[in-house]
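Database export, one record per block. Field names are fixed; values are copied verbatim from the stored entry.
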Amino acid sequence: MLGLCLEKGLGLVTLVPRTCTVRQELEAWGREQPVLPLLVEKPGRTKDEACRRWPGQSVIRPVEVENSDRRVTQEDLRFLVVHSRQLAQQQSQTYASAKGKEVEAITDHGQQAQARWFACEADAEAAIAEYAHHGPGHRGRRPRLWRYHALHCRVVIDTRRTRRARRGRPAKTDLPPLESGYRLVVEVEVLANPEED
């Protein structure tokens, strides 16, 4: 997408994801600077609130960009390095809240998957393909990938008690009726580089 914007001469302003090497490099560069020049200054929202200041600096760095014909070239792009405690705090809170909600949804999803019973292994394998690490759809939309976790399902052989074929009290020597089948075991992995990044 970035390569297409450069080819068409379109301007693009976006927050650089945490997983991009150039962001990590610029963060390290910013920490090394004794003082960043004042970039933006805004009065407080109320009389008692202090004036808000954002120090920052515009820098140019070469970045690998893929063109529409899939050629990768080095392009000089402008980045704005801004030090903002308010944004960092807000982003951390949003990130923690989203992760917490997903943990609840994954627990629910995992319990439902593990509660299912399958008569044959093929049905269990089909259910794994159906889940395919996807979360539940929202308001009729198609399911999407989990953002902060990966779900790994495997099939295990199990037995469970079934209803007796005959009515009445069973003899003390009768063993409880059992049937063999398959169920899923769900393991959750926390992603080092979440899908959202």
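Remark 1: The mean pLDDT is 80.
Remark 2: The CA atoms of residues 146 and 190 lie 10 Å apart.
End of record.
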